[in-house]
Design brief:
The chain is mostly beta strands and 428 residues long. Helices cover 3% and strands 40% of the residues. The chain has a domain of 191 residues.
């Protein structure tokens, strides 16, 4: 089943069609009794499109050691082209501040990825539109940006932050339209990301996507394309971002064509070497459009895929593991583990349990939050929360974050008190 994120803003018809699917449960273990969890909405997006109000959060969150949450909305703000925001504790509640409203021109528009918190609390992110209007794609080919307070004294007064555009994609060999993956940076301050289009010719002339690097050079930034995808050999269109291991190797997944798990490794000659680790041709309908999770202690990679499962299963998706081979560790269906359209990169706690989202699964087909645990070599599914589509939200997307106490935070792209999405928390 195609990802709702690939089709843009979801509709009621999409959810209705997903609810009409009838698939067989293929989990490898029975679902245990639900654990005691507390769900609460921290913030309701109003969605009225006026007075600079943000709405429609289409990415996940980033969290600081102090518990402040940062994120983006695809719509809303002063110019209706999206915002970057901060949600922080204020007494017994939470206060949301809009840090920046995208204007939709050279500064960017429609941030569908989250932000990365860099040194000094500077935020870094991408927009899928805006930037250079001459790039050949209507609305611009996207940007890479940073956000920082004007000054500490001003920042304490909750003043808007200053945006700096680090790079505007041209839509040619340099890439175009960065999508859902957040930026990754190394110890030298270089940034890495992916674009959905651009690169070498192919894929209908729009290009098949790239992996790129941004290097600081004085007061500016220089972009370098590390790899341009070729659908005949290594797939195309990386919707998700990349991750980096302790050796500075990069990993990611392409989402269209011969969908491929790949790595890029420094070759010692100021360049990078691309390797196809494995193609997902041995699974049925495998659709991977999010970033991977790496467990550094075991060097296991984990991810979620839609439509993956044993041959002929018609499964709604799977959590998969790669450790010198692809292995669907848990397959979803409707009967006992009602998950379809598993979304976003997984997050792992200190005990090795994995947590993820379903866009339109759960008891009410409005999305769910779940846990996958390795119990004596068998992976066990636990439903943590089922969204109803009412005041609690609907359609969770993006990534989860976890604080030091094991509390989970995320966004739902619809529902809530005003039908425009929420920020939520689940406490153990």
């Amino acid at each position: 089943m195609a990802s709702p994120r690939k089709n843009g803003i979801f509709t009621a018809a999409l959810r209705a069609s997903a609810a009409a699917l009838i698939v067989m449960f293929l989990g490898f273990a029975a679902m245990p009794a639900a654990q005691a969890q507390t769900y609460q909405v921290l913030y309701n997006f109003t969605g009225n499109g006026s007075n600079g109000v943000p709405y429609f959060p289409y990415a996940g969150l980033a969290i600081t050691a102090g518990g402040n949450l940062y994120g983006t909305t695809m719509r809303g703000g002063t110019y209706e082209n999206g915002t970057a925001f901060r949600l922080k504790r204020a007494g017994s509640g939470w206060l949301l501040n809009v840090l920046y409203s995208f204007q939709g021109g050279s500064d960017g528009a429609s941030p569908v990825s989250g932000v990365t918190i860099g040194p000094g609390g500077v935020l870094y992110g991408t927009t899928e539109a805006g930037g250079d209007p001459s790039c050949g794609i209507g609305g611009g080919c996207g940007t890479v940006y940073s956000l920082r307070p004007l000054a500490q004294a001003v920042a304490n007064a909750e003043s808007p932050w200053t945006e700096t555009v680090l790079y505007r994609f041209q839509g040619g060999t340099d890439g175009a339209v960065p999508k859902y993956g957040s930026l990754v940076f190394d110890s030298a301050g270089n940034f890495f990301g992916t674009t959905l289009y651009g690169g070498v010719a192919g894929c209908g002339g729009a290009g098949c996507g790239t992996v790129y690097e941004l290097l600081p050079t004085g007061n500016s930034w220089t972009e370098s394309v590390l790899h341009s995808f070729n659908p005949n050999t290594d797939g195309s269109r990386p919707f998700g971002g990349i991750i980096r291991d302790q050796y500075n190797d990069l990993y990611g997944v392409t989402s269209v064509g011969n969908e491929t798990f790949f790595t890029l490794q420094p070759n010692g000659n100021n360049g990078w070497t691309y390797y196809n680790v494995q193609q997902f041709t041995d699974t049925v309908g495998c659709d991977v459009d999010t970033s991977l999770l790496l467990d550094p202690s075991t060097f296991n990679f984990y991810g979620v895929a839609q439509g993956c499962g044993p041959s002929g299963s018609g499964a709604g998706g799977a959590v998969f593991n790669w450790n010198y081979g692809f292995n669907p560790v848990y397959s979803f269906g409707f009967t006992r583990a009602p998950v379809t359209a598993p979304e976003g990169p997984l997050v792992e706690d200190a005990a090795g349990n994995l947590y993820g989202l379903s866009f339109n699964g759960g008891a009410f087909q409005q999305g769910s939050v779940y846990e996958i645990s390795d119990v004596h070599g068998r992976w066990v599914y636990t439903e943590l929360y089922d969204f109803t589509g009412g005041s609690d939200g609907a359609g969770p997307v993006g990534n989860l974050v976890m604080d030091a106490n094991g509390n989970l935070f995320g966004t739902a792209s619809a529902g809530g008190a005003y039908g425009a999405g929420v920020i939520w928390e689940i406490t153990p």
